[in-house]
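ok, trying the design again with the full structure, not the truncated one.
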């Protein structure tokens, strides 16, 4: 297929030749042996990453979820890094923004993505507001594997702390159902 030709397609199929090739590669990979999340995780596995919570990241998140709370505004047009105002002092990070990034830590990015994983339980405790501009460490620990109604689950405990002074900002418990 030449670069200028348009692949035959309908509205449900990829529209470019690159997308067509990527789709074919993905479908072919389904024949390969894949592990489930249950098989990939060992109780006691600990994964962590650091995340800088910049004003720009907060803006992108708040816009995406349409949460326009002035407490999160540690910026102004043409003046990016300012203190902002909230009942806690300066601008704070929307708490669920951090929770959103837990998934990127919970799955080991050095391994192929596990097939058949469903996030089924989530309990978040917010201990302290996170100032905009902080760098946090998100750490997940696989603490249990259990079966309920013939379905397999992996439980993780999560802690989010400040990289500089280890302040605990947020903790979570999450269950992943593994098909």
């Amino acid at each position: 297929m030449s670069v200028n030709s348009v692949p035959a397609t309908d509205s449900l199929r990829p529209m470019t030749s690159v997308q067509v090739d990527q789709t074919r590669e993905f479908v072919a990979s389904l024949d390969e042996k894949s592990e489930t999340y249950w098989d990939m995780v060992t109780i006691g596995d600990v994964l962590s990453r650091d995340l800088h919570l910049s004003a720009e990241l907060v803006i992108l998140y708040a816009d995406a979820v349409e949460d326009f709370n002035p407490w999160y505004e540690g910026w102004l047009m043409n003046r990016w890094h300012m203190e902002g105002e909230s009942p806690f002092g300066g601008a704070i990070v929307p708490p669920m923004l951090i929770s959103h990034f837990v998934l990127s830590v919970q799955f080991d990015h050095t391994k192929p993505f596990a097939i058949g994983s469903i996030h089924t339980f989530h309990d978040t405790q917010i201990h302290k507001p996170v100032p905009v501009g902080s760098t946090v460490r998100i750490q997940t620990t696989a603490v249990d594997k259990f079966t309920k109604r013939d379905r397999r689950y992996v439980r993780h405990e999560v802690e989010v702390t400040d990289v500089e002074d280890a302040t605990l900002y947020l903790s979570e418990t999450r269950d992943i159902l593994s098909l």
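Keeping the full-length input from now on. The mean pLDDT is 84.
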